[in-house]
Known about the structure:
By secondary structure, this protein is an alpha+beta fold. The chain has one domain. It contains six helices and 13 strands. The strands form two sheets. An eleven-stranded antiparallel sheet has the order 4-3-2-1-13-12-11-8-7-6-5. Helix 2 (23-40) packs antiparallel against helix 4 (100-127) and helix 4 crosses helix 5 (156-162). It starts with a helix and ends in a 5-residue tail after the last helix. Mean pLDDT is 85; it is low at 1-21.
Amino acid sequence: MKFFVALALLAISSLSLAQTPPPLEQLVKDMAWNEVQDRERDSFWQYRVQQKIGQQTFVKYQVETEHGPIYRILEENGQRLDAKQQQGEDERLNHLLNSPGALEKNREDHAQDEQRLERLTKLMPEAFLYESDGPSSSDLLTLRFRPNPAFKPPTYEARVFHGMAGTIVVNQRLKRFVAMHGKVIEQIDFGYGLLGHVDKGGHFEIHREQVGPTHWKTDLVDVHVSGRVVLFKSVSKDHYETRSQFQPVETTISLTEARHLLDQAALENHATLRNGQKF
């Protein structure tokens, strides 16, 4: 009798262990949950942006508002804007801030990018298989990821995401996403290539910076892919972008106040360039 009781307890114990997610899988689940929660908190920021899109480079200043982020170009291709270019920026901003249709499109484009990123973040625990990429360094743990063959991508964007392999870096103490480097490992066709495709070999890198006790912001986006499908409206197929000097702004900031911050940043940038300093 004792033998059968022991056997039953062993079976129950084995079932319990089988249902317990491996530590790495649980870490990724917790990380994904925290990232989604962070995005649902109201938090607006102003920051400096440096971009390289194709062969063009830009320095911008950006302020987040309830209408989506608005920006002002400060430099183009390594040069401060001349009077005509500054006037063009004034006209672009005036049109944006005084056109309900343009503001709505700006807000909707930003919202769609945020929603895509949230959907992809939620897929991370299921879309990939993870293994440690060596010992952790302080709070940081690097994981290798590859497509999970059991996962069935529900959308086109999920198919692109699922077609990648690479590494992610997680702050295992805070359970937050720090960085991700991925590469498209096979060509991805949609509608037998008629609706679009993403070529093998494309790659991307994302890095996140902690800017507050619970808030993290993306400070690096590096995307180089070829094909006819891109995931984010605000990112091109050959796009390098860094963000720095994060400062919080009130979530109630008005467009007039945001515009003032952009104009002030332009004046400060002009002064520092004139004095031979970095802004």
